[in-house]
Amino acid sequence: MNEYSSDINFIDLKSQKDRIRFLLDAAIAKVLDHGQFIMGPEVKELEFELQQFTGAKFALTCANGTDALTLALMALNLKSNDVVFVPSFTYVSTAEAPAQLGLIPYMVDACPKTFNISLDSLKDSIHKAKKEGLSYKAVIIVDLFGQPADFQKISDIASEENLKVIIDAAQSFGGSIQGKKVGSMGDITTTSFFPAKPLGCFGDGGAVFTNDEELSTIINSLRLHGKGNEKYDNVRIGLNSRLDTIQAAVLLEKLKIFPDELKKRQWAADSYSKALIDCDLELPVIADGTTSAWAQFTIKTNDREFYKNKLNENGIPTGIYYPKPLHEQSGYNHFPQANDLDVSKELSTNVLSLPMHPYLQESYFSRLAEILE
Ligand SMILES: *Cc1c(COP(=O)(O)O)cnc(C)c1O
Question: Is residue 362 within 8 Å of residue 271, measured between CB atoms?
Fold first, then answer.
C-alpha cells in the first residue's frame, strides 16, 4: 500500500451522483408512481432529447450498446457469411455482434496516432476480400476512447465499394466532427449507456441513431420482437431489447449536465497535456475539427510497466484498453484479416489509460506532474 490516501478514481460516478442526487431520486420516484416500467413516457422523452442533442432524425433506445450494434446489422438485412469489416483494436462487441448473426467480422488494423481504424488497412482488406470472392457489405468503425473516426474519408471509400457504414459510438457520444455531432453521421450510429461510458445510466442501456426513416421503422420493430402495426402482429424475427423506463429517467437528468461534463472532460484532457509535457510519452492526437468525448485519456509508452507502477504506487489508478487485439483472441482468431495487424498488436503492448472523468481537480494534475518529474 502507498502512504498517501488517494481520492483519485479512474472514473468518478460518485461525484456525479452526489451533484444531482435529489433530481435522480425525484425522477426515479416518478417512475415508481406511474408504474410504466417498460416503454414508459420517459423513454419517448429521452429519445426526443437525444434527437435534439445529436441532430439525428431518429433516436431509438435499446437494452445495451451490443444490442444496438446487433439491431443496426439486422436492419441492414445482411445474409449469412456476408463480410463486415471491423477494427481489431476495440472492445469485443464490435466483432461479437456480426459474429452472433452469422456474418464474418473481417479484422482491420488501427491508425497508430488516433487508434481508430486505419484507412490503408481498410483498403487492403477490401482488396483482399474481393480477391477471395467474399461478399462484403458493411464496415463498423469505432470512435475509440471518445475520438470520432474520420467519417468523411471512410465514407468515400465505403460509397465506392457500396459498403454501409455503422459507427460504433459507444465511447464517443457527445463528440463531433466539424460541428456535426456524433449520432448524425453514417447510415446508422450506435451507442452505449453502460455506467462507465461518457453518458451512462445506472445499469445497461444503449441507443441507435439514423437519418433514414425506413431504417428507423425497422429498428423500432426489431427491438420489440419484430412487431408490425399491432402488438401481437410479428412481421419479422426481432429481439427483446428495450431501455428500462427507470434508466431513461436517470439519463434525462444526466443529459442535462452532460454539456457541462463534456467541457470539464476537455479541460481535464488539456490539463493532462500540460502536466505531461516533459514526460517521454505519446499523448493522444485529436484530428483538426474533431472534438473527443474523452471516454479515456490514453497515452503510449514503450515503458508501460514503469509508468503504471509509478502511478499505482502513488494512488493513481490506470487501465489497459485493450491488452489483446481481437484477432489474437481465441474466440475470434479464426476470422479473416488483411495483413499482420502490427499496429493493433503494438498498441496492445504500449497503451495506458489514465483517470478520466469530469470531476478531476487542478490539485490532481499538479500532483501528477510532481510524481512523474
Ligand atoms: C462498451 C462498448 C460496447 C458495448 O456496450 P454495452 O452497452 O456494454 O453492450 C460496444 N462497443 C464499444 C467500442 C464499447 O466500448
Answer: yes
Query: For residue range 195-204, what is the model confidence (pLDDT) as tens digits?
Result: 999 999 999 9
Cα distance between residue 200 and residue 12, in whole Å: 12
Q: For residue 208, list its beta bridge partners.
A: 60, 190
Distance 362 CA to ligand 1 centre (A): 30
Query: Is residue 157 within 8 Å of 141, Cβ to Cβ?
Result: no
Residue 301: closest CA among 288, 310, 293? 310
262 Cα distance to chain centroid: 15
Report which protein residue has its CA nearest ligand 1's atom 6.
65
- What is the length of the chain? 373
Q: Which residues pair with 192 in a beta bridge?
A: 206
Taking CB atoms and a 6 Å cutoff, what residues make up the pocket around ligand 1?
64-66, 90-91, 93-94, 142, 168, 170-171, 192, 194, 204, 206
Q: What is the mean pLDDT of residues 156-170?
A: 97
- How many other CB atoms are there within 10 angstroms of residue 20's CB atom? 16
- This prediction's pTM: 0.97
Distance of CA 57 to the CA centre of its chain: 20
- Ligand 1 centre distance from Cα of residue 281 (Å): 27
DSSP per-residue string spanning 64-95: -HHHHHHHHHHHTT--TT-EEEEESSS-THHH
Distance 192 CA to ligand 1 centre (A): 6
Q: Residue of the nearest CA to atom 7 in ligand 1?
A: 65
